[in-house]
Amino acid sequence: MRYLSNRRALQVLEPLRTSRTLFVFDFDGTLAPIVARRANAVMPGTTRALFMRLASLATTAVISGRSVLDLHERLKVQPDYLIGNHGLEGLPGNAALLRRAQTLCATWRQQLEYAWCEMPHEGIEVEDKQYTLAVHYRLAPDARRARRTVVCALTQLRPVPLFVPGKKVINVLPPGAPSKGDALLHLLQRTRARQALFIGDDDTDEAVFELDDPRVITVRVGRKRTSCAQYYLRHQAEIDKVLRYLTQRSGTSTPI
Ligand SMILES: [Mg+2]
Fold first, then answer.
1. Of 9, 30, 92, 238, which has the fewest CB atoms closer than 10 Å, so is most exposed?
2. 33 preceded by a cis bond (ω within 30 of 0)
3. Distance from Cα 207 to the centre of ligand 1, integer Å
């Protein structure tokens, strides 16, 4: 991983500064700082202004674990594509998949309510996002113990879900659900973009970082040795630096 430290380092993104690039971002921890209560997550004003500028110049998308409705209300800017539930929601042609996901989530949620009757679960919260569940333990007094409790309850779920761990959260997805990587490849095909830039920070974003596709440039917010991302930023606030670079006037023949 190489650090996009300054303007010189950012020049690796120069070939992306064309209207034929698809710009894709995760939300929490990428466009918005991580906060203790996820309901309070907002995109800072400067980031929003830069994002709006980019959205006026090129094709943009946000792919997040949040639901599409939640993203829509929270972003206050409209990218070309909003993909929610880790890649499952917002792409055309997967209505049957969504119906099945909704039924599975209702079943799992009921099973978890029974499971909580038999185990202490202070600070553990199940977020029902209609097509996936997220079991959060960020507010638990003892995170390690809470995680053990969550894992114990989740491994009892039937039918067996797909689990994707995140930051103080375990995501519960229908088996076979499309990943963020699948969603990004779908968007590349749909928009006929020549290339894509993806910036994310979470374990679910590894599905994009792992894509072995020369058209996709990947940036992780936060360095992680085991990540497959090509570049990294140290802090979430550095996203502004990248957005600013991308939206500046370019000397290329097809500038954005
Ligand atoms: Mg994130």
1. 92
2. no
3. 13
Distance 167 CA to ligand 1 centre (A): 8
Question: What span, in angstroms and rounded, lies between the C-alpha atoms of 71 and 16?
Answer: 25
Q: Dihedral, CA atoms, 217, 93, 60, 69, nearest 10 degrees? A: -120
Instruction: Give residue 168 CA to ligand 1 midpoint distance, Å.
Output: 12
How far away, in angstroms, is 43 Cα from ligand 1 center? Answer: 13
Q: How far is CA 108 from CA 61, 145, 251, in A?
A: 30, 22, 54
Which residues make Cβ contacts (< 8 Å) with residue 70, sequence separation at least 6? 84, 129
The CATH class of the 95-173 domain is alpha beta
Q: Where are the domains of the chain?
A: 95-173
